[in-house]
Every structure is written in structure tokens, then in C-alpha cells.
Amino acid sequence: MSEVLLTVSSEELTPETAPGTVYDRFAQEGVLAYERCTSCDSAIFPPRVLCPVCGGGVLAWEASAGRGRIYSQSTITRRDGSSYTVALIDLDEGFRMMSTVTAAAGAATAIGDEVVVTFDTEDEQALAVFVAAASDTKENTLREARTPAEVYAVFYGAINDGDLEGAVSVYTPETIFVRDGARLDVAELRTRLAAMIDTDPRVRPVDIRVIEFDDHAFTEVDVEVERNGADGARVRTIGTDAHVMRRLEDGSWRVLRGTVVRKGEIVA
To answer: What is the extent of the structural domain holding 26?
Structure first.
């Protein structure tokens, strides 16, 4: 459980306990603070006066450990050619925030990557920014997707690690994928994935679009794949797949249906 830093009632607000003021004060101390409703226990961010879930007016400020995973990201290129990445981060305490994220030199971040917070204090205001978490292994440790976007993190992470079972774990026994007019069940998908893993692929989701409705979601993913071609040379393609996903009783998400929206096109 996170450390409670301060509890504030909406009926007793002062300039010193206003949400923005409190957040900035903790940020200056190197603490990523967020609110939790004392009535419904919802994690709240950005800071508010009232709980957006139940309307409760007594909110406790807690200290986040500052670790989370990238839910979605977009890279913006400036006119001078430099670029930076903006991401939505799902923090381990249960709230989501937008910030910039950077990877190690020569690397790139991807959806599902673990990140940790740091604070940019070059200006007077301390800004929470994120960096890719250090890892001593390439093993794909994210095996249970808690959001539709994390399904792709599990799947592509397993493919990149050569983990066939990890990739197949995103399917249900009833999963069907339609490709070139053929209906592929899980057994056929397993065979095709094994063949794909044999090409030493490096797969990266470029953009993910999600529409959730109750316990189902419709998703599209633009995905870049680099692999060994028939002649042994590396080939890079970009295509688009679409999926219908379902949330199971344990809260994890799985793929029910899939199809190809745009076949992989070879790029230079």
C-alpha cells in the first residue's frame, strides 16, 4: 500500500491544499504524488477536488513508486529533425498519466515497456518524465494482459523472445483468425507463429487504436516486422491487423477474433 502523505477535504480547501499546489510541492521533493478517494478507493490523476468516480470530497494524497508501463505512445518530430516521444503511462498504483518517455541511447521504447519516473528540474517547476526501466534479461515477463493494449505487449514481446507459448497465451481456445479467406484456429496459428519465430523476427507495434465496450474491445494495430527473408537478407514490412478482444473473469484480456486489414508492405 502506498504511503499516505496528506488527506484533504473539499470543504476545507486553502490555497496551500489546492490540488495543483500540493502536486507541485511534492514534485519539487522528487515525489510523484496522486490522490486516492477515501470513499471508493479509486486512484485519481490528474489531481482533482472531488473524486470523478463517486463524487467523494475527502481525498488522500499518496506517494507513487513511480513505476509503470507504456499504454500508448506517439513520436513527434520537430522541424529541425529532432524528436521526442509522448506516452500514456499506466502506473502500478492504478492511475494513468501523460508524459514524455525516453529509452537508452540507440534504443526505442515500445508499448508495454516498463518505465520509471524521474524529475526534470531544469526550470523552476519539477516535471515528471519517464525513462525505460533497466533490464538484465530479454525475457518477456509480462504474461497477463490487464488492458487490450497490453495484449500486444505480451504477444510481440514473446515473439521477439522466441517464446511460442507466450505468444499463443493471448488466445482463447475459441480464437479464430481470418487471413486470405481462410479461418485459422489456435492450432494453425501456433504452426504459423512457429514458422515466423524461425525467421528471427523483431516486431514493433507502431500505433494501437482501442475502442472498449463493457468486457469487449475492438483494436487495430499498425505493426513493423523485421525478419530474415528467403535469401537470408533482412526484410522490413509494415502492415495492419484488427482484433476483437474479451476481458475474462480474472480481469485479463485475450484475443477472440483477428483479421488482416492491410498486408505487410516491404519498406526500405
So the answer is: 4-63
Closest CA to 245 of 221, 217, 205, 220: 217
- Are 17 and 81 contained in the same domain? no
| Chain segment 103-135, per-residue pLDDT in tens | 865 567 888 888 889 888 777 788 999 988 765
Quick check: is 246 in a domain? yes
Separation between Cα atoms, residue 160 and residue 23, nearest integer Å: 39
> Which grid coordinates belong to 95?
492511475
208 within some domain: yes
pTM: 0.54
Residue 199 to residues 118, 138, 179, 186, 225, Cα–Cα distance (Å):
38, 18, 20, 20, 11
The count of domains in the chain is: 3
Residue 249 DSSP class? T
Q: Are residues 116 and 185 in the same domain?
A: no
Q: How far is CA 98 from the centre of its chain?
A: 11
Tell me what the mean pLDDT of segment 144-154 comes to. 83
Buried b (16+ CB within 10 A) or exposed e, 132-169: beeeeeeebebeebebbbbbbbbbbbbbbbebeebbbb
Most confident of 71-80, 152-161, 185-194: 185-194
Q: How large a percentage of the chain has pLDDT more than 70?
A: 92
